Amino acid sequence: MKSRDSAVRLKRFEANEKACKVADLEHMIREFEQMAVDLDRQISAEEDRTGVKDIAHFNYSTFAKAADQRRANLRASIEGLVAKLDAAVRERDAAQADLDAVMTSEPRELERGRRRPERVAGIVMR
Which of 106, 82, 98 has the alpha carbon at shortest distance from 18? Predict the structure, then answer.
């Protein structure tokens, strides 16, 4: 019975860790998306302020260029995090399935646990 309890605790811990990882990745993606939106606003404001909207123009704002590069980096990071999130969701679902399998095996384990002491003693009582 103790080994089953340990297995259940281990599977529950693993499932919780995977769920936390998914939540963390989702939170990071939301934060990065918000930062990219903020950079969009800053770039628009800078372009309106300077009157130059063509990034190839020699008089384009260096602040807007730098913000554009940061926004591109954030979007690349978001794409990478989305890929990690997909993998983490699959791992979380697998861990939850393992936990469910261990939890549903309880009745069989209880029946085995009741029979074992009788067999260990060498007496089969039915």
Answer: 98
